[in-house]
Design a protein that fits this description.
The protein is α/β, with parallel strands linked by helices. It contains 25 helices and 24 strands.
């Protein structure tokens, strides 16, 4: 284990905001560039302190970002023979001390290192016992005497917590860990966790038998008693810390949370216990889940053992066994579970018993694996005498990305507000009718259908919603087509004459007023910030949010995807989260830019993003002094190909815009406004063109469906 943090060339590029090729050039051109201290010839490692000193001396960074410094110390504490996430448990424990007992940390911080090294472990253990109880504290396995690196890490963690809040600081570290260990850890996204929690309602007790980092338990109300289990003891400890850090600091009582280590299928920690609800995203495609040793387990109804290749169905039965009669179980499962022939008998038993209540087809990108359109299964543990045998088949694919969007990254393209409304409206209406004996909701072609369980029991017992939900009736009739055609014509007629948008030729490349040759003088956005003419706010993980339908009057949260698509914010600010009130809100004249990618920049105003919105994840907010810097002029240059190319960092597979390196020509404000007006006209033209293209695709699809269904005749040939 190295005695000081080391970084690779890719990590050096990330620190300096450049591409990896730039680091290679520095090594060749600068004899004083730090020498490798480890790694291999093809992937050398360098001492972080040496690299930081060299970058600062060269003026390439002013200071290593605080989060990066913390992460490097966490990496240093990793034992190659131990669990890679163990240092995060120590880090989370320090943040918990700062969160729940800041006065105790303050008293320790003033002590010499020798006394801090002995006093801090005791303070960490005491705080953990107070917040999590004796069993929860024991699961965290606090270290004894601390070394100098651990003391340095503790001080930096408190500094990071003071800036971002303890919960946000821990979330940043977990994100870095998940990015570096994607094969070991694929946490459930908060949006998916909130959807499952909303399906469950407000239960008094909830179990998640495959807790992971605790996303599902974290999405539940604070009043709910939460129980969990994870096969990895360290991950179980991280989940406990995560939930504790999000809990209010003023609550003196231990948290109603119990997360135990152990394999839930082989070593069930809650044998004989039932809960109001069970939520789970189990591991998928496990061959060695305990099929042989669990042949006679009492969790299998009627001795029906799940086949060896159906580990997901074993998790379904496990969850159902821990659900009290009338309680709810909800699981995220791969779509193959609904149709594989090996699982037909288990699926049939779930139908015959009346346990299975709904199968929801979700869009790709909802949760890992992001390229697979998962299913949401909802079950109710049968009550004696309950003869309800109907299943809601819901196809929520309309909230999925198009094929083109999926190719660009479906995870960021899911329309969560629409998906949430689609699922919850249909499920709640169906569930209320089932529980109260009311008439079932009418089927909606293309969206959902209620199917009698007996109609699903055949040789396949295929529960895929696409097999049972009839397609939506194509938009037909002259009135419908005429309406779409009229709207499209209006948009096309409203487009500016493209010829009026063409610029006057300058005769020589780069000599126009907006180009680098227009007077030769340029200024970076970083220089404008230092001179006080521009403010830059970067959101990172973004404002804490929740779905807009939870509080329609709340402060909207604008995400990077909202900005790219031009759509209205679909979430509102979660004001209960730490630091939420201190976040900057958008004002008219602000310029918003996504941190990832390039080519998009919008000015806050009547025709752009709304004022009074909080920043979601991965956004830059630029606030120019309008007397010296025109917002439309700034936004136009940020949309240019040159800006994205010159200021982009390619240290990973994602292009990241280093906003402070963007260059602008030095122009008088009158010239800026003249160019800004031209940029604004181009932006309006592009927005109208995108709306016309979307409407054109809708009209084309409607006519195609009508012709295919035989409800319309092709037009007469000219």
């Amino acid at each position: 284990m190295p005695d000081r943090p080391e970084v690779t060339a890719v990590e050096i590029a990330r620190l300096a905001g450049v591409g990896r090729a730039a680091v290679s050039n520095w090594r060749r051109r600068h004899p004083d560039f730090p020498r490798p201290v480890g790694g291999t010839d093809s992937s050398p490692a360098f001492a972080l302190t040496d690299v930081e000193s060299w970058l600062r001396a060269q003026g390439k960074i002013a200071e290593l970002p605080l989060l990066e410094r913390v992460w490097r110390l966490v990496e240093t504490l990793r034992d190659p023979a131990g669990h890679p996430a163990a240092p995060l448990v120590r880090a989370g424990s320090v943040l918990l001390l700062h969160h729940r007992a800041p006065e105790r940390w303050s008293a320790l911080a003033d002590q010499p290192d020798t006394r801090l090294a002995t006093g801090l472990p005791r303070a960490l253990a005491d705080t953990a016992r107070t917040v999590l109880g004796p069993e929860g504290a024991a699961d965290l396995r606090q270290p004894g005497l601390l070394g100098s690196t651990e003391l340095d890490l503790a001080r930096l963690l408190v500094e990071l917590a003071a800036k971002a809040g303890p919960a946000a600081a821990f979330e940043q570290l977990l994100t870095r860990y998940a990015e570096a260990n994607t094969r070991q850890l694929s946490p459930t996204p908060p949006e998916a966790a909130e959807l499952l929690a909303a399906v469950a309602g407000v239960p008094a007790t909830v179990l998640d038998p495959a807790t992971g980092l605790g996303a599902l338990l974290l999405a539940l109300p604070a009043t709910t008693d939460r129980y969990g289990q994870d096969a990895d003891p360290v991950t179980a400890g991280l989940a406990l810390l995560r939930i504790a850090l999000h809990a209010p600091a003023a609550d003196p009582a231990p948290l109603p949370v119990d997360v135990r280590p152990g394999d839930a299928l082989r070593a069930d920690a809650y044998t004989g216990h039932t809960f109001d609800a069970v939520l789970c995203q189990p591991p998928y495609n496990e061959r060695d889940w305990g099929h042989e040793e669990l042949q006679f387990d009492r969790r299998w109804p009627g001795g029906l053992v799940p086949p060896r290749g159906e580990s997901e169905l074993a998790w379904v039965l496990h969850c159902l066994a821990h659900t009290r009669p009338g309680g709810l179980a909800a699981l995220l499962l791969p779509p193959t579970v609904a149709a594989r022939r090996a699982g037909r008998r288990v699926r049939a038993e779930l139908l015959r018993s009346g346990a299975l209540r709904a199968v929801v087809a979700l869009p790709a990108g909802v949760a890992p694996p992001y390229g697979v359109p998962l299913h949401l299964w909802v079950l109710r543990a049968p009550r004696p005498g309950d003869d309800f045998r109907q299943v809601l088949m819901l196809d929520a694919a309309s909230a999925s990305p198009t094929s083109a969007e999926a190719a660009e990254g479906g995870r960021d393209k899911v329309r969560w507000p629409e998906l949430r409304r689609t699922v919850l409206d249909a499920w709640r209406a169906f569930d209320l009718a089932a529980r109260e004996g009311l008439p079932l909701p009418q089927d909606r072609p293309g969206r959902h259908r209620t199917v009698a369980a007996i109609d699903l029991l055949d040789d396949e017992t295929d529960l895929s919603p696409a097999r049972h939900v009839p397609p939506a009736a194509p938009l037909g009739g002259a009135a419908g087509f005429s309406h779409l055609s009229g709207r499209l014509t209006e948009l096309l007629d409203g487009l500016a004459d493209p010829g009026a948008l063409l610029p006057e030729p300058t005769g020589e490349a780069g000599t126009g007023p907006g180009g680098p040759g227009g007077g030769g003088a340029v200024v970076t956005l970083g220089e404008l910030v230092r001179s006080g003419l521009l403010e830059v706010h970067s959101s990172g993980t973004g404002a804490p949010s929740r779905p807009a339908d939870a509080d329609p009057s709340g402060t909207p949260v604008l995400t990077d995807q909202d900005l790219v698509t031009g759509s209205a914010p679909g979430a509102v600010l979660d004001r209960s989260a730490a630091g939420a009130e201190a976040l900057p809100l958008t004002r008219p004249g602000d310029v918003l830019v996504p941190a990832l990618g390039g080519g998009t920049a919008r000015v806050v105003g009547p025709d752009g993003p709304p004022a009074g919105a909080a920043l979601g994840r991965q956004l830059h907010l630029l606030r120019p002094d309008p007397a010296a810097l025109d917002p439309d002029f700034l936004a136009g240059h940020l949309r240019s190909t040159a800006a994205a190319r010159r200021a982009a960092s390619h240290a990973s597979t994602t292009t990241r815009l280093d906003i402070r390196r963007v260059e602008l020509p030095r122009l008088p404000i009158t010239e800026q406004r003249r160019l800004g007006a031209a940029f604004a006209r181009l932006a309006a033209f592009d927005a109208t063109l995108q709306r016309a293209a979307a409407l054109g695709r809708t009209l084309t699809q409607a006519v195609t469906d009508a012709l295919a269904a035989g409800t319309a005749e092709p037009p007469q040939a000219p």
